[in-house]
Amino acid sequence: MGRPASRPLAIHPRVHLRPAQPAPPPIPRAGQQDPPTPTDAQIDGILRPARPEALRPYAAYTGSLDEGLYLRLCYNTAKEEAHEAVWAGNLAHGFVGPDGLIFDDGDIFGAEGMDLARFLEIFPERVASVGGVEHVEGRESALEECLRGIEEYGGDGGDGDCQARGTGEEEYSDGVKRYLAERRRRDPLLRYWEYHAACVVTHLFIEDAETLEGKGLLHVFLDDIGNVVRQWRTDETSSEDFDFDGSWKEGVWRGEFEMGRGVLGDAYRDGGIRGPPYEL
After folding, report:
1. For labelling alongside 44, which of 52, 115, 219, 235 has CA 20 to 30 A away?
2. Would you say 229 and 254 are in contact if contact means Cβ atoms under 8 Å apart?
3. All domains of the chain, ordered by start, with CATH?
4. Mean pLDDT in the chain?
5. What is the C-alpha separation between 199 and 267, in angstroms, rounded?
6. Region (Disordered) spans which residues (predicted)?
7. How many CB atoms lie within 10 A of CB 8?
8. Phi and psi at residue 229, to the nearest 5°
9. Is pLDDT of 222 > 60?
10. What pLDDT band is residue 248 in, cutting at 50, 70 and 90?
11. Whether the Cβ atoms of residue 94 and residue 227 lie closer than 8 Å to each other
């Protein structure tokens, strides 16, 4: 897949978003309409290129909390049979349900260089419209709990660490506890899985060239500025991503973050825009 989306401005966990204050009324100028109306030249030169007519039907909804998103990026005519098989798999397994938003238009999403980052440049509302003060506060609270557990119990994945964070891991079998402890020793950032999960605002399934080679859909979880938090490939031999609209609403996917499925996004790794040290 292409590079993870990024934005120049990162919201630090301690930064609280405040409701925008009303702007002072503009000073009227002679001959100015109230409110000002864009000229035909401005419409043709600014507004239409920003959201061409062909793209506007896809912007009927500004949020994506309740419906799945499916983005098709590969339109290789030689792979059309593979695409049909992949789509049949979606119909059978319900990766995206009947109310999902399907971005499938070769003229738009099959353009050279199109990837997730460019898709989000066209449709920034897919992530920007589902964040806000409550999301930032929830993210901060999750990080605070993680840091408390690590400070008090060393964060090695042991029983004390689990109980400190109140994750319910104390109820796991000894085998699962040992597995998690070993995973966290090998990947220390996995100790922050609750924080990573709290950063997620939406997700989408991507059908790309690797998908058409039999490697599964790319399931991507995004934060409120379009960074990839975690991603993995779907597997038709397991059911974690089946009927995912319901799993999404119920937060079942958080368990996959806990187990370290797939890979953590570059933005949350060392040197990333939201990478460690994670601190309040």
Report:
1. 115
2. no
3. 60-130+201-268 (3.40.50), 134-197 (no CATH)
4. 78
5. 12
6. 1-42
7. 6
8. -85, -50
9. yes
10. confident
11. no
Check residue 20 and report its DSSP letter.
P
Distance CA 159, CA 161 (A): 5
**13, 140 contact by CB (below 8 A):** yes
DSSP assigned state of 194 = H
End-to-end Cα distance, the chain: 32
Q: For residue 206, list its beta bridge partners.
A: 71, 218
Mean pLDDT over 60-75 rounds to: 75
Q: What is the pLDDT of residue 49?
A: 65
| The token pair that represents 66 in the structure block | 């309740």
* Cα torsion through 100, 105, 109, 112, rounded to 10: 160
Structure-block tokens of residue 258: 């806990």
Strands 202-207 and 69-72: parallel
Q: Which amino acid type is present at position 57?
A: P
Closest CA to 89 of 228, 192, 241, 197: 241
Cα–Cα distance measured from residue 265 to residue 4, given in angstroms and rounded to the nearest whole number: 7
Please check the confidence at residue 265 and state whether its pLDDT lies above 90. Answer: yes
Residue pair 104/70 in contact by the 8 Å Cβ criterion: yes
What is the three-class DSSP state of 100? coil
* Per-residue pLDDT tens over the stretch 76-106: 999 999 999 999 999 888 898 887 888 999 9
Q: Is 19 helix (H, G, I), strand (E, B) or coil?
A: coil
Q: Tokens 């007519």 identify what position?
A: 53
CA–CA dist 256, 197 (Å, integer)? 10
pLDDT, residue 243, reads 85
Those residues whose C-beta lies under 8 Å from the C-beta of residue 229, and which sit 6 or more positions away, are 196, 197, 199, 200, 221, 222, 223, 264, 265, 267, 268
Coil, helix or strand at residue 96: coil
